[in-house]
Write a structure and sequence with these properties.
The structure holds 2 protein chains of 2 kinds.
Chain A: E1 4-5, E2 10-14, E3 19-25, E4 32-38, E5 45-51, E6 56-59, E7 62-67, E8 72-77, E9 86-93, E10 102-103, E11 107-112
Parallel strand pairs in A: 2-11
Antiparallel strand pairs in A: 1-3, 3-8, 4-5, 4-9, 6-7, 7-8, 9-10, 9-11
Chain B: E1 5-7, E2 10-13, E3 19-24, E4 31-37, E5 44-50, E6 53-57, E7 65-68, E8 75-79, E9 88-95, E10 103-104, E11 108-112
The chains are: A mainly beta, B mainly beta.
Chain lengths: ~110, ~110
């Protein structure tokens, strides 16, 4: 039972353009959402998070949008840079913070120079 | 380096052997998590500790798996009688209670032959 779904295994974007990574979830009890980035041979690194009381959170080039009614969130990267090329994982938690977190399967982003 | 440290980075073992992995979290972090990641999947939650107490275990953690955090600092994950299906990346992460992110180590890649 995949409670957090990332339906696009890969995405290619030109440098300077917007990257949009999507994530859907099925468990309505999730109230905290995170995005992690992972480079090969490294552990995931935290990127940005959002609580269910918000619908948008920004941090520099990264913005996460949450649509609770659709059980959907997205990560926008503007402008995309070649160093953003990595696998991006969406994750969700029921505890309002980081506790038992469920990860999606990941989307591999390639930013083309 | 004050990040999460995992040892060994790679382990090749024969089926039926026991293996033990170690995780040293960020020193002031009171929570420690173990995940397993297989190819094409996101990290799957195995178990987590708050200080020395193991608070939750996933159904993925069969009787052959045991984790400890004896003094609330480092943790070990032992797999007994390894099977080929245990081949995966084992990730450790740590966090402070009440915070919204966890920091991951680089993982231990286990190959069972």
């Amino acid at each position: 039972d995949q409670q957090v779904k990332q339906n696009s295994p890969s995405l290619s974007v030109q440098e300077g353009r917007i990257s949009i990574l999507n994530c859907d979830y099925t468990n309505s009890m999730f109230d905290y959402f995170l995005w992690y980035k992972k480079y090969p041979a490294e552990g995931p690194t935290f990127l940005i998070s959002i609580s269910s009381i918000k619908d948008k959170n920004e941090d520099g080039r990264f913005t996460v949008f949450l649509n609770k009614s659709a059980k959907h969130l997205s990560l926008h990267i503007v402008p995309s840079q070649p160093g953003d090329s990595a696998v991006y994982f969406c994750a969700a938690s029921r505890s309002g913070g980081y506790q038992k977190v469920t990860f999606g399967t990941g989307t591999k982003l390639q930013v083309i120079p | 380096d004050t990040g999460v440290s995992q040892n060994p980075r790679h382990k090749i073992t024969k089926r039926g052997q026991n293996v033990t992995f170690r995780c040293d979290p960020i020193s002031e972090h009171n929570r420690l998590y173990w995940y397993r990641q297989t190819l094409g999947q996101g990290p799957e939650f195995l178990t987590y500790f708050q200080n020395e107490a193991q608070l939750e275990k996933s159904r993925l953690l069969s009787d052959r798996f045991s984790a400890e955090r004896p003094k609330g600092s480092f943790s070990t994950l032992e797999i007994q009688r390894t099977e080929q299906g245990d081949s995966a990346m084992y990730l450790c992460a740590s966090s402070l209670v009440g915070t919204g992110e966890a920091f991951f180590g680089q993982g231990t890649r286990l190959t069972v032959v």
